[in-house]
Specification:
7 helices; 11 strands; elongated; alpha/beta; 6-stranded antiparallel sheet; Rossmann fold
């Protein structure tokens, strides 16, 4: 048996992500580690709300992470929604179910994992995950959370097609061709920022200036979104 096959059997990595731009970085960190050791990769996110009650921003992040996990060849993307148990218990259950040997989590000022900023979350997790290595990734806020510094919280919006261009709208209409999340630049009275949406099973984003899309949208749908 090759060394690579042995490592694939011996190691299994679980990346735990929550809402914010650092999720992509954590998943890629897990991917790099899994690629080097030739082992399976799993991605987990946990929420107390049921999925159909997620706001636009949460839904966008989940879709983005799921797509990234698939693109990187992760073995499974796991969403534990409507979860009433402590997050540590959920991570432990998933870890032991999939024979995880290494867990990757992020520790940042924006992280909303239960009590993570109080310091007790890590201690409890380390006690619960016996014989499992826990990697705590400290994210540089200035470098990694620039989106949160520059843009306001994402809100649900739509793109309407006017002749050969698109404009931003926040009203449900049969004229809407795309539904997604708009991130407005902080400190401006105009609708400047960027708009994220999913089309053809893939995540896309376009620049918005004064409520107008500033770039070409490839492969537009033939029919508007029914609302």
């Amino acid at each position: 048996m090759s060394a690579n096959a042995m490592s694939h059997m011996d190691e299994r990595i679980l990346v735990c992500v929550y809402y914010g731009p650092n999720g992509r970085r954590l998943i890629r960190r897990g991917y790099e580690l899994a690629r080097m050791t030739g082992c399976p990769l799993y991605v987990l996110t946990v929420d107390r709300l049921p999925f159909d009650e997620f706001d636009a921003e949460k839904t966008s992040y989940v879709e983005e992470w799921k797509q990234l996990a698939e693109e990187l060849g992760a073995d499974k993307f796991i969403l534990k929604d409507n979860e009433t148990r402590p997050i540590v218990k959920v991570i432990k259950e998933v870890a032991y179910k999939h024979n995880i040997t290494q867990v990757i989590i992020g520790e940042t000022p924006q992280n909303r994992w239960e009590e993570i900023t109080k310091g007790s979350f890590i201690n409890v997790l380390l006690k619960e995950l016996v014989f499992i290595d826990v990697h705590i990734v400290s994210v540089n806020r200035a470098l990694e959370s620039g989106d949160e510094e520059i843009y306001e919280k994402g809100i649900r919006g739509y793109l309407q097609r006017i002749e050969d261009s698109y404009i931003l709208s926040f009203t449900k209409s049969k004229k809407n061709y795309f539904e997604g999340v708009f991130y407005k630049e902080i400190g401006t009275d105009f609708d400047n920022g960027y708009f994220k949406y999913v089309c053809g099973g893939k995540s896309h984003e376009v620049e918005i200036h004064d409520g107008k899309v500033m770039e070409e949208i490839k492969d537009p749908p033939n029919l508007p979104v029914e609302k």
